[in-house]
Amino acid sequence: MHRRRLLASTAAAAAAVLALSACAPSDDAPDPGADGGATSAAGSDECAEPVALDVWSWRTEDKDTYETIFDVFEEANPCITVNFQAYKNTEYNQILQTGLTGSDGPDVAQVRSYGLLQPLVEGGNLAPLDDVVPALADFDEAALDGARGKEDGGIYGVPFAAQTIQVFYNTAIFEEHGLEEPETWEDFIAANDTLKEAGVTPLAVGAKDAWFVPTVHDALTAAQYGGAEFQQKLRDGETDFNDPAYVKSIQSFADLEQYMPDDVVGVAYTDAQVLFTSGAAAMFAGGSYELAFFQSTNPELELGVFQVPPPEGSALDHPVSPGYADGNWGLSAASDNPEEAETLLNWLASEEFGQMVANDLKQFSPVPGVTFDEPLMQEMWDLYQENPAPYLLLVDYRYGDPVGTDLMGEGGQQLFLGELDAAGVASKIQDGLSAWWTPGQ
Q1: Which residues fall in a coiled-coil region (predicted)?
Q2: CA 269, CA 275: separation in Å to the nearest integer?
Q3: Comparing C-alpha atoms, which of 334, 329, 365 is closest to residue 344?
Q4: In whole angstroms, what is the distance from residue 47 CA to residue 60 CA?
Q5: What are phi and psi of 4, to 5 degrees?
Q6: What are the beta bridge partners of residue 79?
Q7: Which domains does the chain have, with CATH numbers?
Q8: N or C: which end of the chain has fewer CB within 10 A?
Q9: Per-residue model confidence (pLDDT) at position 48
Q10: Best CA proximity match to 250, nearest among 286, 207, 221, 230
Q11: Cα–Cα distance between 165 and 177 in angstroms, integer?
């Protein structure tokens, strides 16, 4: 992997990472081994006291694959067993919070990134890893931004995946209707019109699940409002979410509803996935994390990806791929097995694990040195590298209550129901964020 920035970040973050690079591992940190993997906690195949680590996740769809991956760790560390447990995505945050503050919680857990990480850091639920996992010094600074404590700048997780956002399309359907990847906004609209007239749902969107709405909005219109340039203007205090370019992007989102399933607010995210994998819909605007699910659900599905070109007069004159650090592996401060958990965390920062994330889970591992053998992954990564943007409301606006993605999720639903217009949704976001955020601060 080219060690380039995964997301837009500030000069302050860069300085923080340089500082982290100078940190030496503590004397009691596990030996990561010559190849970056961890060595057995017992130091031999004979275990004086075998240890079972409880590892929690929100990735229920990846449970079987993770269990196979952890078999590799257990083979190299015969004194440690990993009990992997995955919980429903929408229930996970509360389950994890309860587990980390109780006596039956995990030793190691997948934790969210950016603002949703902060309550666990501020609550003392996670142990800092700066001096525990030496390999973190070599991670891209922007990947570490999602694992950083806002107040102390410490690193509280090993980043496990980065995601990019773009449009997947069914190449067979495109070929059947004489369509190609759009090079202009007019091309994109014309393709939607052609598909709709042919009785094919152009865009598989499920707006019943509010969390998915801001993902689709950014996939379709991030270039229109300005991507990283707009992010910087917000950070500098030069504008807010009532900015005309942002309002126009929401209006374009509303205009595209005609190409989505009927009663889109009544369509669940999983319904949208089925529409696309079954061939009933031609395009799916979403994250790179969809790839493994799409291919496992329908191995015959022929896929392509593209960035949506912006309309004339947009803030940017080229398309972008929004991206973000998805989450991290955190160490419970209450773990009864901290030494073994640190051994596992060092392995989770190794190239061996990162390559399995790329190959088996088809996720963009942020571990330095990982390569992508899947052609579509490489294409998504190349598109992102050419024209990156932040998944704005997730990266910068989850540090208070209400969070930006929730505001856009609910606002987008109200937009499709006719309860708010584009300006009203923008005002809803700005007013909600004003409870804890001021532009330029």
Answers
A1: none
A2: 10
A3: 329
A4: 31
A5: -105, 170
A6: none
A7: 46-163+324-370 (3.40.190.10), 164-323+384-433 (3.40.190.10)
A8: C
A9: 78
A10: 221
A11: 25
Distance of alpha carbon 398 from alpha carbon 403, whole angstroms: 5
Nearest to 29 by CA among 420, 349, 267: 349
Angle between helices 422-433 and 404-416 (to 10 degrees): 160
d(CA 132, CA 129): 5
H helix or E strand, kind and range, residue 80? strand 80-86
Round to whole Å and give the CA distance between 40 and 78. Answer: 7
- Bridge partners, 165 (sequence order): 287
Supply the DSSP symbol for 427.
H
> Would you state the structure tokens that stand for residue 203, as one six-digit string?
């865009």
264 neighbors 417 (Cβ within 8 angstroms): no
The model's pLDDT over 214-269, given as tens digits with 9 standing for 90+, comes to 999 999 999 999 999 999 999 999 999 999 999 999 999 999 999 999 999 999 99
Which amino acid, residue 307?
Q
| Three-state SS at 55 | strand
Concatenating the DSSP letter of every residue in 166-222 gives EEEEEHHHHHHTT----SSHHHHHHHHHHHHHTT-EEE----SSTTHHHHHHHHHHH
Q: What is the pLDDT of residue 21?
A: 34
Cα(first)–Cα(last) distance of the chain, in Å?
33
3-class DSSP state of 155: strand
DSSP element (H, E) containing 330: strand 321-331
Closest to 304 (Cα-Cα) out of 114, 145, 167, 138: 167
Q: Mind listing the pLDDT tens digit for each residue in 335-352?
A: 999 999 999 999 999 999
Spatial distance between the Cα atoms of 146 and 371, rounded to a whole number of angstroms = 21
Amino acid (one-letter) located at 128: P
Residue 195 near residue 201, CB atoms below 8 Å: yes
Measured CA distances, 408 to 73, 202, 214, 283, 436 (Å): 40, 23, 6, 22, 16
Residues 6+ apart with CB under 8 A from 175: none
Q: What is the CA radius of gyration of the chain?
A: 22
- Residue 427 burial by Cβ neighbours in a 10 Å radius (0-12, 13-18, 19+): middle
Report the candidate in 164, 167, 173 with the shortest Cα–Cα distance to residue 278.
Answer: 173
Q: Provide the residue type at 270 as one letter.
A: T
Token pair belonging to 44: 């031999």
Containing 187, the helix (H) or strand (E) segment is: helix 185-197
Report the candidate in 206, 210, 217 with the shortest Cα–Cα distance to residue 167.
217
At 385 the pLDDT is 93
Q: Check if the beta carbon of residue 401 is closer than 8 Å to that of residue 435.
A: yes
- Cα three-residue angle 73-2-110, rounded to 5 degrees: 40
Residue 78's CB is within 10 A of a number of other CB atoms, namely 15
